[in-house]
Amino acid sequence: MAFSFVQITDHHLCDTESLLLQGYSPAYALRTVLRHIAEHVADHIDFIVTTGDIVDNASAISYGNACQMLQLQTTSQAPGPARMTLEGLQDFPLYFLPGNHDDRDHFFRQFFSDTPPMSWMNVSFQHKGIQFICLDWGPQGKAIAQPEMLAFLTRCLQNGQPSIILTHHHLVPFGIHWIDAFLPVAADSEAFWSILGAHQSQVLGIFSGHAHVTYERVVNGIPLFGLRSTAPQPVMQDEPLLCLQPPHYRLVTVQDTFLTTRIFEVPL
């Protein structure tokens, strides 16, 4: 059975909608992206997933602002779906992953109030015969493979279902030192890809954020997809520098066990 969903990522919302992040309005950008989704693809998708860094400086206030802005009807079960109403999206399903900017306690209390806070949110959900595996590489900027995460990934893949992996942290190098410094160490990366190597045929793709960059790669036969943030994006140079580019969202369509994607660029 065919279905589609949209990925968005790295919103870095502040304590109020009016606050700026280095001169940039993350709330305005997210609103504009959601309006574009509502006008162009909402009638053809089943849900939206955000792959982390919902807020910039994690606090009860910033998460409260996110919930208020999205008019969020929360759910007890992580990763959702919660239901949001904003910019033409009415009672729309939204799945949440935490990023390294997301405080796990505040994240769970605000979005999944009946789910006890987890140090790492490794969970899965099912949708029309596809298993979505949500992996958490931790609250640090650098990805760290906890044994619990690797064991969870192994258990999920042992059921033999076609699977899509969702993760905040990116997993491929860009050749830019300060971005590549966030990648997992070699031992963690090898352990992760070793597990996937035994189940390569059932992994349809891996979707991530964190780097604020849109890319498509194939590693060990598995497609990897990164996505430009709705917050400011980096200039691809050796020293950190942010710039203003139109944010992206990714439309993903699954037909049986075949996956296709399309990028939408949203003018601000």
UniProtKB/TrEMBL annotation:
InterPro entries: Calcineurin-like_PHP (IPR004843), CNP_phosphodiesterase-III (IPR050884), Metallo-depent_PP-like (IPR029052). Keywords: Hydrolase, Iron, Metal-binding. The keyword Iron applies. It holds the Pfam family Metallophos. The keyword DNA-binding does not apply. Residues 4-213 form the Calcineurin-like phosphoesterase domain. Belongs to the cyclic nucleotide phosphodiesterase class-III family. PANTHER family: CYCLIC NUCLEOTIDE PHOSPHODIESTERASE CBUA0032-RELATED, PHOSPHOHYDROLASE. This is 3',5'-cyclic adenosine monophosphate phosphodiesterase CpdA. It comes from Dictyobacter halimunensis.
